[in-house]
């Protein structure tokens, strides 16, 4: 399983956390951005419920799938931009 990295970066006159190419809102301090990244990373590892979903593919065919709620990513907060 891949690890999702949360990096802390300077952004828009303050600090933000970044996951791949996506930036969070801007925080006034590095510490505030680091706290927010840690909170977001922790929430992402919480297990949900296993539910059935219905999805349509590119050819317009419908498929039923099972979304495994306990299957959560591994997260890591680093004090540098995410790769």
Quick gist of this model?
The protein is α+β, with helices and mostly antiparallel strands and 83 residues long. Helix content is 18%, strand content 41%. The protein has one domain.
Descriptors:
4-stranded mixed sheet, alpha+beta, 83 residues, 41% strand, two-stranded antiparallel ribbon, 18% helix
End-to-end distance: 16 Å
What Rg do the Cα atoms give? 16 Å
Please, how many domains? 1
- Strand percentage lies at 35-45%
Q: Bin the helical content.
A: 10-25%
Element-level helix/strand string: EEEHEEE
| Principal-axis shape | elongated
Average pLDDT score: 86
Query: What's the total number of strands?
Result: 6
Low-confidence stretches: none
Question: What is this structure's SSE topology?
Answer:
Elements: E1 3-11, E2 14-19, E3 22-23, H1 30-44, E4 51-56, E5 62-67, E6 74-78
Parallel strand pairs: 1-6
Antiparallel strand pairs: 1-2, 2-3, 4-5
